[in-house]
Amino acid sequence: MKKQIAIAILVASLVLVSGCDRDRMSEKGFRLPEGDAVAGRETYLYMQCTQCHSIAGDESPDLPIDDPPYVELGGKVTRVKTYGELVTSIINPSHKLADGYAEELVSKNGESNMYNYNRLMTVQELVDIVMFLQPYYKVIPPDYEYRIYP
Ligand code: HEC
Q1: CA angle, 77 as apex, 46 and 134 as ends, to 5°?
Q2: Ligand 1 pocket, 130 CB below 6 A?
Q3: Is the pLDDT of residue 80 over 60?
Q4: Distance 114 CA to ligand 1 centre (A)
Q5: What's the whole-model pTM score?
Q6: Is 134 in the pocket of ligand 1 (CB under 6 A)?
């Protein structure tokens, strides 16, 4: 019986410790300043995001590379693309790969094919690009199909 209690305490403390670790990595309280969309467009072109991206409803020039994955940014989404999600897509692209593409087209072994800009991009450039991109995402409520069974 004592042994069972000891095991229960051990398990409970392990759960607690891992819970604390999760808290420490929490994004709670994280907030970047607002950027400038006009400057963001400049940065987007200057950093040649257009090598692999087009933007729904925007006339940015295509600079095709040999084997582009061409991922469209913006367009119809079923829920708001948050600031946090866009920032994450740019500085930690492998965290969640873009929806709607075959994994083998946009990633290798779970790593996104997107360039890593983290050593090149300033925080200002990052927040400007996010402000530029966000309005291109248009939230459209999902079109549910109701099947009527006879
Ligand atoms: C070498 C090609 C390449 C370049 C250059 C590139 N990306 Fe990407 N990007 C990708 C691929 C592939 C994906 C899809 C996989 C993923 O989600 O990481 C992606 C995904 C994204 C997404 C998420 C899209 C979604 O619907 O979830 C955003 C936002 C994005 N890129 C922004 C940028 C910005 C901003 C730049 C320029 C600073 C850039 N990318 C440059 C290849 C590229």
Answers
A1: 35
A2: no
A3: yes
A4: 5
A5: 0.82
A6: no
